[in-house]
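Readers of this paper often ask what the protein records in our data store actually look like. Such a record has a labelled line for the sequence and another for the backbone structure tokens. Nothing more is needed to write down the fold, since each code stands for a local backbone conformation. The record that follows is passed on verbatim for readers who wish to inspect the format.
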Amino acid sequence: MASIASSLGDEKERSLQSLFSQPVRFHLLYKSSHHGAQLSKLLSSFDTSGKFVLVVFLQTGEVRGGFTSRSLKVGRTFDDEEAFVFEVNRRAKRFPALRSAKAVEVHFTDSGQTITFGQQAGYGGFAFKQPLSSTSSPVAVSFGKCLRVNSDDQVMCVDIGPDETYGCRWPEEKSARCVDVELHRVQDLGDLLPSPWREVCWTDWTRQSLRHNFASYKLVLETLPRVRALLLGPVGSGKSSLVNSIRSTIYRRIVHLPNVGTATGSFTKKLKSYDIRAEKGGSPSALSLCDVMAIGDEDFAGLSYSDTLDIIKGHVPEGYKFQSDFPINDKINGYRAAPTLKDQIHCVLFVLDAAKVTSYSSSLRTSLRRLHTTVSDLGIPQLILLTHVDQVCLAVKESMMSVYSSRVVQEKMQKAAELVGLPLSYVLPVKNYISQLSVDLNTDILLLNVVNSILQAVDDTLEDEYPGVITGPLPKEQLVKI
């Protein structure tokens, strides 16, 4: 909707925003002069949840409207203690609902269309009614008598009057033609910090630098061809989608590989390694991502603790199909009794879903903590990748640049750190490419930061493990930070 400008203008928008107790931002969802003056189009423009303002622009230059904390997409009547009507003229003024019962209501009939704010014909507040039959159509949305918007011959009209539900004393006026009618989603900015708690330069230069650093990265231990990073996480955490997303970022286009699904249980059944190439058809980079069956919890058996350790130690051959009832042993085909360094896992990535991180089972928490302790004892670096951060904060969904300004995302990251037992600095937020058809600058930067962080974490560990083998400083380009 960014290409469609609101008729509010900067001054009136700021005046309307001043009526809210917390800082807010408006997102235009519907504009009658652009989308058509039909009530059905207005109602279909509501999101399934959220807070909204309906703004009516009169021919006199006056602006009236109403606010509701409920979506009018479905339902009949709504109690809304937060509802209010407003006017924005020389100054903005609000009239809060004095009676919250049925503060919001939408009326239906077989023909005709009307929207009402006020106590019209005995309706209190803002109300919504479902159609009585498949042929009925919406005719009114009421906030008492204060404001009633009608759609007549492709023109929005409004009835205005005094009202007891909201306590306003507007002069009565019938069927006044509207210049425009707009619906905005109201985003509460109280969840955004005054400044980001991690600094990131969100520019194409940053993306290109991170991509170059990753493509040219040389491990400090020359005898190790590439890092093997193991993706561990519960069902639905986005492990397999992460592989596709990282490849998409590197290849500069969306990659569709047959390793992603929506099964109720774990979609991945085998140990599968994905070499991340510096470019499509090019040589493998220093990173290989290893995907496995999801970790089990109370509802899903999943990857066992013993099988996980065998994978980390390098005993399990590529392509091995996991069986919850049959643990890995030295009798399986291809079992490596004496794995070399290049067979082993060099970094463990705990992949967790931001939308579920506060509701994971206690059994999963116990499994993650146990794995973290064991992996630490093995001297293997670990990171937490928090996926789906765009699903827990509206500001982040609008722009990934807000990821480190979001209180919600920060809290989810802290919860993820506590769940595994790692410091907050080990948690990296990411967004997977799921519905997009092209790559995005800010999403790319977060994904590229992940792959570079993996390589750097392994190098830091290798320096301590093989001090006599590694000599000389790291190449200068490998020290670039975002």
Notes: Confidence is low (pLDDT under 50) at residues 111-115, 120-134, 471-482. Residues 211 and 448 are 7 Å apart (CA to CA). The chain is about 25% helix and 25% strand. The radius of gyration is 28 Å.
